[in-house]
């Protein structure tokens, strides 16, 4: 299911200090999914925090949007070789989720789980300290369904497949458990600057 050959070209006028190797800039926001786009209404959405198999806390949509909201503007980089600069997001940081649940650094790793059955693994170190959020808005508007609305994980410093769409939970684990694409040949970590696209990169 993994295909090499996504090669980007730089125009020569791009800010190369912000574009990882093998990437090219886009002005649009490409839509890529592993399967059909689910339709989740906010009234039906919930988010569950687990440590291992044990649920710690579950939030409804109204409870979740009452948590502290944070804005961040970040560059994002897709494994299919496009990069988009200065994207503006608003949502709830993972730090604030953990604080509201009354837990701190529950384990070294996490799996994000989603409504479409998708999952992806991210180390706690890449979620904490303001590095990641559950995004609810993009460019000041509610997150579009095609881009993961009503909520998606945002881990902007890793390849964008780690920013799981339609997220409905985080499960903290003791070991680094591979998610959907990681089981199908994508890199276990996914650092754009080290071109960690595939397992052996």
Number of continuous helical runs: 2
* Proper CATH architecture: Alpha-Beta Complex
Give the number of DSSP strands: 11
Oligomeric composition of the shown chains: single chain
Radius of gyration: 16 Å
Q: What overall form do the CA principal axes indicate? A: globular
What characterizes the major β-sheet? 6 strands, mixed
Give the averaged pLDDT, no decimals.
92
Q: What is the helical fraction, as a range of percent?
A: under 10%
First-last Cα distance = 17 Å
Q: Bin the strand percentage.
A: 25-35%
Structural class: mainly beta
Low-pLDDT segments: 1-12
CATH fold assignment: Sulfite Oxidase, Chain A, domain 2
The SSE order reads EEEHEEHEEEEEE
Q: Any idea how many domains? A: 1
CATH superfamily: Oxidoreductase, molybdopterin-binding domain
Q: Kindly provide the name of the CATH class.
A: Alpha Beta
Task: Give an overview of the whole structure.
- This protein has 201 residues and is mostly beta strands.
- The protein has a single domain (42-194), classed as Oxidoreductase, molybdopterin-binding domain (Sulfite Oxidase, Chain A, domain 2).
- Helices cover 6% and strands 32% of the residues.
- The chain has two helices and eleven strands; from the N terminus they run βββαββαββββββ.
- Strands 1, 4, 5, 8, 9 and 10 form a six-stranded mixed sheet that branches. Strands 3-2-11-6-7 form a five-stranded mixed sheet.
- A hairpin with a 4-residue loop joins strand 4 and strand 5 (82-93).
- The longest helix is centred in the middle third of the chain and has 8 residues, at 94-101.
- The protein is globular and about 40 Å long.
- Residues 1-12 have low confidence and may be disordered.
